[in-house]
Design goal:
- The protein is α+β, with helices and mostly antiparallel strands and about 160 residues long.
- It is built from 5 helices and 7 strands; from the N terminus they run βαααββββαββα.
- The longest helix has 27 residues.
- The protein is rod-shaped, with a radius of gyration of 25 Å.
Length: about 160
């Protein structure tokens, strides 16, 4: 029986919120920077203050509103790409080994110690194991990154003991 700990729901939701904020901010800045010059615009007074009353030259605020939307849209695209890249990450604890994100496999007999002193208070534990080169490696696993880590930790402790 394998125990899974998928990527944290909060991490995915935070990325979605960041994407939405970038898109909304780019829409607002684009509206102020490009559409406020028309009389029908609800923000024509912004255009008047930052362009017309400034001698026909855009102020730094107007320049920012005109130049920032592509960067914000780019940031939203990068965040969406990152979200797509991490959506299938997970930790799987099966009978013989711990598999992290499908590519890092840690055999239970190579685990030296588990430091779980901060798991209850801060939500992470540190796994110390020997890799293929007989080098000690510390791996920090946090419940902010993965959901369902408590059963994984219990399974690890039972396998190590």
């Amino acid at each position: 029986m394998a125990i899974e700990a998928p990527i944290s729901r909060h991490k995915k939701n935070n990325l979605k919120i960041y994407i939405a904020v970038c898109l909304v901010a780019s829409a607002i800045f684009a509206y102020d920077g490009y559409l406020s010059k028309y009389k029908w615009s609800k923000r024509h007074d912004f255009y008047k203050k930052h362009f017309i009353d400034n001698g026909g030259k855009p102020t730094s605020t107007m320049n920012f509103n005109r130049k920032s939307p592509p960067f914000l849209i780019g940031a939203a695209v990068l965040l969406a790409g990152y979200l797509l890249a991490i959506r299938n990450r997970r930790i799987i604890a099966d009978q013989n080994e711990l598999v992290i994100n499908g590519n890092e496999k840690i055999a239970y007999d190579s685990i030296q110690r588990i430091d779980k002193t901060h798991f209850k208070s801060k939500g992470f534990f540190i796994l110390t194991y020997k890799n293929g080169n007989d080098r000690e490696v510390n791996r920090k696993l946090s419940d902010r990154t993965y959901d369902n880590l408590a059963p994984i930790l219990d399974h690890l402790v039972a396998k190590i003991s």
